Amino acid sequence: MKKALRFLVNDRVVETEAWEGTPALDFLRLDLGLTGAKEGCREGDCGACAVLLGERNGNGFAYRAVPSCLLALGELDGRHLVTIEGLAEGAAAAGAEGGLTPVMRAFVEENASQCGFCTPGFIISLTAWLVAGRDIDEEGAVTAVEGNLCRCTGYASIRRAAARLVAEFSGLPAEPAARLAALAAAGAVPAALPAFARGELPKARPAEAAAAPAPSGAPDAAPDATRPATIVAGGTDFYVRNVDPEPREGFALLGRDPRLRGIVRRGSVLEIGAAVTIAEFFASPEIRAAVPGIEAYEGSFASSLIRNRATLGGNVANASPVADATAMLIALGASVRIERPAAPGAGRGVPLESFFLGYKRLDLAPGEIAAAFLLPAAGPFRFSFEKASKRKSLDIAAVNSALRLELDGGRVAMARLSAGGVAATPLLLEATSNFLTGREISAATAIEAARSAAAEVSPIGDVRGSAGYRSRVLERLVLGHFARLFPETQAGIAEEVLR
Length: 499
Prior knowledge:
Elements (H helix, E strand, L loop, with lengths): L1 E8 L2 E8 L4 H8 L18 E8 L2 E8 L12 E3 L1 H10 L8 H8 L9 H14 L5 H7 L11 H14 L6 H10 L6 H6 L8 H6 L18 E3 L5 H4 L9 E3 L9 E4 L2 E5 L4 H6 L1 H6 L13 H4 L4 H6 L6 H8 L3 E5 L8 E4 L4 E3 L2 E2 L6 E8 L5 E7 L10 E10 L2 E10 L6 E2 L1 H7 L6 H14 L10 H19 L4 H8 L2
Parallel strand pairs: 1-5, 6-7
Antiparallel strand pairs: 1-2, 3-4, 3-5, 8-9, 9-14, 10-11, 10-14, 12-13, 15-16, 16-17, 17-18
Helix pairs in contact: 3-6, 16-17, 17-18, 17-19
């Protein structure tokens, strides 16, 4: 039931025996007394509980902002967790004026905090952006805080604070260790971050280590042996459905299995571990090389906080008919490798579109998991992803679709069109894909394909849209694929849409 865990919180080593599934937010607030991370939505949507999570991987390291309400305590083992208190302590130790980090100072000077409830999360997210952001510009800053909600400021003052940080830190080194050192020298992050990145785990203070309590949610009673095993990857679904989870046996954190974390090219196939996060998937040079332009669709997936936790395998295995990663992978021709964790390497492969047997039903026998996705990466092709949702971003799709096209001159040599939200399972639209093969690229082809796709599905209505609405939206998404991939078709498509 309980497991011995050892990890770094700010500049202190914490050693405890605990149930791995305890939400990290509860442990921070109730057991360590670190209340800077606020309990807000407990669904990862507000950002008030954000913390920095650091890990060493091989010879490198990574720090990312994550929602601690969706973070299992077992994920911290051997890692470094930094709270808003740790940032403040680091600034004070560095002799910063007022004990403020540069991010905190920018918020103060631009009046970017009013009630203050959300402020720690914003500070954490912007600090993570300085540490790991690919682009130190205003667009990068806005992306960094897209999962942080503020009900007071109207965001204009937060944007001004971000602009100050861009001006101050636009010259940061690109090399991760050098950047971390520069930020520590500027008082933006505590000295514990570069020390952890170098592998210098501070020694535990004996009194603190001995006194570290077990989480308050870990009972002494024996667990219920009748409960089924629970598998958790990023936790973005499990903790939403289990806000206050009770300790249970058979709890497995797949994200800690290094065999499920990598992206490896084997000939013309990319093998993507199921525990690769959505953020890692889109940032991967191998993925970007295999599917040029795919990074443009990263913003379609929730917020950066969620993308740093949600895994590719979890998005697929949740078996939602509108999972965005599923729609993309089906169009890209991916298959899933199914294994038993006790016997890795002895699994079986299934085309991803065949993995779904019905609503929330997967082709998995007891004890099996989706271990990896195999993505064919040979040959040039064009790729597009479209979704329709009630909000422009940070929302679940009503309908989504992806299209992969191989061309032979001005004609389609091969097509794979996927659709989600138009059936109980995600679909490969085989009839429309076959219709497109051999067709000339034109507005007329796009219009016929859109009609074919709508005729191929039989959606049902629900709170996100009626059956008729979903069919009509799918038509528009198919037209959107062509308008995006072939600008010369836009005029003809627009004429059809405006009729």
